[in-house]
Design a protein that fits this description.
about 150 residues, Ribose 5-phosphate Isomerase B, Chain: A, globular, 7 strands, two-stranded antiparallel sheet, 5-stranded parallel beta sheet, alpha/beta
Length: about 150
């Protein structure tokens, strides 16, 4: 599975940890496409959200992981794109539910509030949980009609 990962300066260390340590998940080989930031110097999250969402919507990657300090900015930026379902998560249960109930194709992590190890656990829960479909798909279809 090819996953795009992007962050501003606040999530840079987490991003590097994820890329170094996460090569498989739920029997899948993971390949990371890094759109930055490429160092810990101050940067602006919208640039990286745009790059990641563009790759995802073009079908060049299958999912996206975004990080910033609180995660809120990245979630707002990503959810501006039609077809993007970005979920800001803070524990494994919420990460799994974002996949199971909401078919989130973007996972947003609050780097200032979680450890790199927790980030890996949240990504693992998200990637390991299948979407339920059914009535949950009906809700997503309603969102698509309204946008």
């Amino acid at each position: 599975m090819n996953i795009v990962i992007g962050t501003d300066h606040r999530g840079y260390e987490h991003k590097e940890y994820i890329k170094r340590g996460m090569h498989t998940c739920a029997g899948m080989q993971l390949e990371w496409t890094d759109v930055g930031a490429f160092n810990a110097q101050r940067s602006d999250y919208p640039e990286f959200a745009h790059k990641a969402c563009t790759l995802l919507l073009q079908g060049n990657v299958e999912r996206a992981v975004l990080l910033c300090g609180s995660g809120v900015g990245m979630a707002i930026a990503a959810n501006r794109y039609k077809g993007i379902y970005a979920a800001l998560v803070w524990n494994e249960d919420v990460a799994a539910l974002s996949a199971q109930d909401d078919n989130a194709n973007v996972l947003v992590l609050p780097a200032d509030f979680i450890t790199p190890e927790q980030a890996v656990a949240f990504i693992t829960a998200w990637l390991s949980t299948p979407f339920k479909g059914g009535r949950y798909q009906k809700r997503i279809d309603q969102l698509e009609k309204e946008s």
